[in-house]
Every structure is written in C-alpha cells, then in structure tokens.
Inverse folding.
C-alpha cells in the first residue's frame, strides 16, 4: 500500500535499565533525518513514529504534548480497541476479555483499526501509541501497511514507578488494577521488549528516561521532534 521509507541513522551505546534484552540507546544530536526533498503524504507515505514503553510509562501523556506541540496525529492503539470494545461490535466482548486479562488483541484487529485511523486523518504525521505490542503485531503491520515506522520512541521507566502511576490513574479502565497490571508487565517483558530490541538493532530506536515530572520528560522528548525537518 505505502512505499517503504528509508531507515534513519541513529548512533548507539549500551543500555542501563530495560536491560533484559540489552536494548541499545540512541544518543545523538541529529536524531532523525528525513531524506532530502522527501515529502510525506497521508495516503502514499505518512511519517510514522511508534511510541512504546511499559504500562504507565507515560506514552499517552507525552503523545498528547507531542501532538499539540509538533502537529502530529495521536493514534492510541489501546484507545482504538477501547472504542471498539464499547461500540458493541462483534469484537467487543473478545477485546474486553483480553484487556481485562492483560493480554494482546489479535494483530489483524488492531492493524485494521490503525489503518482506518490513518486513512481517515487529515494529517501525514502520526504517533502510534502502544503498538506494536509483539513481534507478531509488528510483522502484521508491516505486511498490511507495507511500511516500517520512521522511528520508535521508547519510554524507559522502572516497574515500581509504572505500577504506581497505573494504580493512581482513576480513569475507569478495565485493566487499571493490581492483578491486570502484573499480567501486563509480564506480557510487556516477554513479548513487547523484543520489538523494542528489534528497532534498536535496526537503528530506529530513541530511548527516553521516563522518570521525573511530565514536563521534565517532555524536555527530553522535544529535541527528537525539533530535529525533524518534515517538508509537509
Ligand atoms: N511523569 C509523570 N509523573 C507522574 N504521573 C504521570 C507522569 N506521566 C504520566 N503520569 C500519569 O500516570 C498515569 C499513566 O500515564 P499514561 O496514561 O500516559 O501512561 P501510558 O504509558 O499511556 O500507560 P498505558 O500503557 O497503561 O496506557 C496517568 O494517570 C498520567 O496522568
Ligand atoms: O496494540 C495493542 C494495544 C493495546 N492492546 C490492549 O489494550 C490494553 C491497553 O493498551 P494501552 O496502550 O495501554 O492503552 C493492552 O493491555 C492490551 O490488552 C492490544 O491488545 N494491542
Ligand atoms: Mg496509554
């Protein structure tokens, strides 16, 4: 569907936290370099950043700030699934069960929702928050969408901080409870971190310290997006 985008140059070093998989850390001044003269369009080649991190690492919070400051369209994979769940669609009950368990929805379902959200947006720059959750998700996205993300923003946060934030969230989510957050952390470590590692190896990962205040974190994120020189 969309033509493949060039992989973007990042520089690497070893990691401290999230070290189960020895994820590489990007630490460069010119973080993302779109190809000279390249223009991005919603249908042919949107500019896509995946935003990953554990439950409560602050993905949604930071995506709102990035979207507002840099004009990206924020697509929360979990938000799309929650909307589907409450819509009364045929997948609703299945999604509710998986979310309550802390498990992951079938790739076809999630990618279809993401594709629809991209195609119906009046934008060509997207933040896809909380996806891909697994290697299977990633492969399905690449197959169905026909492109890789331009880069991946990863919020690295200690487990105890993430759990505390989730349990204080108070938004009525079916998964904001002690039991589900424990399951989500297991899934995150076993299935999502390999995706993070995949993008690190490809030179597409930008890792940000997810501790501190929302404002402090955003100041770490800001240079990533300031360095983008998108021609649209
Ligand atoms: N830096 C921060 N310090 C304290 N609380 C925060 C911070 N960032 C976000 N929060 C709060 O923590 C909770 C979780 O944040 P957020 O929803 O952004 O995380 P998330 O990574 O999207 O989580 P999930 O994967 O569960 O959707 C929210 O209530 C949010 O307001
Ligand atoms: O790609 C995805 C994203 C989310 N889910 C399910 O939704 C919940 C909550 O997701 P958030 O991104 O944290 O809002 C997640 O635990 C999964 O159950 C999914 O299946 N696939
Ligand atoms: Mg979220």
């Amino acid at each position: 569907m969309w033509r493949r985008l060039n992989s973007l140059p990042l520089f690497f070093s070893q990691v401290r936290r999230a070290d189960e998989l020895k994820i590489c850390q990007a630490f460069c001044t010119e973080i993302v370099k779109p190809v000279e003269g390249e223009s991005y369009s919603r249908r042919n080649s949107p500019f896509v950043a995946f935003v990953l991190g554990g439950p409560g690492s602050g993905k949604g919070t930071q995506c709102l700030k990035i979207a507002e400051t840099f004009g990206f369209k924020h697509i929360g994979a979990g938000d799309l699934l929650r909307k589907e769940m409450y819509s009364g669609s045929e997948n609703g009950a299945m999604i509710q069960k998986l979310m309550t368990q802390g498990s992951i929805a079938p790739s076809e379902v999630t990618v279809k929702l993401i594709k629809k959200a991209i195609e119906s947006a009046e934008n060509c720059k997207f933040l896809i928050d909380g996806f891909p959750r697994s290697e299977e998700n990633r492969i399905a996205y690449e197959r169905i969408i026909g492109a890789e993300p331009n880069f991946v923003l990863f919020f690295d946060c200690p487990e105890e901080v993430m759990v505390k934030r989730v349990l204080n969230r108070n938004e009525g989510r079916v998964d904001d409870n002690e039991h589900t957050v424990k399951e989500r952390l297991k899934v995150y470590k076993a299935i999502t971190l390999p995706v993070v590692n995949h993008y690190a190896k490809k030179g597409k990962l930008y890792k940000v310290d997810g501790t501190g205040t929302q404002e402090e974190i955003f100041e770490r994120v800001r240079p990533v997006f300031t360095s983008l020189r998108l021609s649209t």
